[in-house]
Amino acid sequence: MEPVIDARGLTHEYPDGTTAIRDVDVAIDPGERVAIVGANGSGKSTLQLALGGLVEPSAGDVTYFGETTDAEVVRERLSVLLQDPEDYLFNTTVREDIEYGPAQLGLPRERAERRVAALADELGLADLLDRPPFRLSGGEKQRAAVASVFAFDPDVLLLDEPFGAVDAHYRERIRDLVTGHDGTVVLFTPSLDAVPEIADRVIVVGRDGTIAADAAARDVLTDRELLAETGLRPPVTVQLFEGLLTDDEIPLTTADARAYLRDVL
């Protein structure tokens, strides 16, 4: 089984001489749920751009689906949500932004309209579809950008902080979209609280732009020394049960934490 993304020796240096990532090897298999985490400034967003084919690395290469190193060849199978939602919103209306991906792929109009309507309903955008994107609030822009990414149902999602600026209600809606996606999901985030709900595997980008760890979610999320060294905090659930349970027993998700407390109380 070929990885959907296979990066070898990725290094990226910006024109000012800053090296964001150094000699990174990352392979993502079909159907995996992976979180790539790191403190702000660690280079994880640059890594997303390199994996998504949006910047050309200074060294190394990325192979997609075992077929090509040209991301544009497989663009219809690969969707990238950037950290700033305004990078995704450039049409006259929200509706046109969400329809853009399906239109580029030549999906039948009726099918595209059903997809847009379903996403708009799920993310509370139904009353905003005919509004210009610049008239949206920060949270509304985030939800519109997420809808645009999901609109053409890609095989691989590369999501940089999809929950930013979104309130708790819609954070859950976005999480449900992510966890319900049939393909591969790679989440990029500096916060580990959402990671247990989404990822089975966690890759940690160190402060120097190298890979500090690549392991099962539990192994990383309960490794306090590793997280401290890389400028990260454990998820709230891990902090809550730290010292009370062994690392193997600590519930990682809020649902598991509730279930544990119901059993012992």
TrEMBL record:
SUPFAM superfamilies: P-loop containing nucleoside triphosphate hydrolases. Keywords: ATP-binding, Membrane, Nucleotide-binding, Transport. One of its GO terms (cellular component) is ATP-binding cassette (ABC) transporter complex. Residues 5-232 form the ABC transporter domain. Gene3D superfamilies: P-loop containing nucleotide triphosphate hydrolases. It holds the Pfam family ABC_tran. It is found in: Cell membrane. The keyword Metal-binding does not apply. The keyword Mitochondrion does not apply. It comes from the Archaea. InterPro entries: AAA+_ATPase, ABC_transporter-like_ATP-bd, ABC_transporter-like_CS, ABC_transpr_CbiO/EcfA_su, ECF_ABC_transporter_ATP-bd, P-loop_NTPase. It is a peripheral membrane protein. CDD domains: ABC_cobalt_CbiO_domain1 (cd03225). Its main location: membrane. GO terms for molecular function: ATP binding; ATP hydrolysis activity; ATPase-coupled transmembrane transporter activity. Belongs to the ABC transporter superfamily. Probably part of an ABC transporter complex. Responsible for energy coupling to the transport system. This is ABC transporter ATP-binding protein. It comes from Halarchaeum salinum.
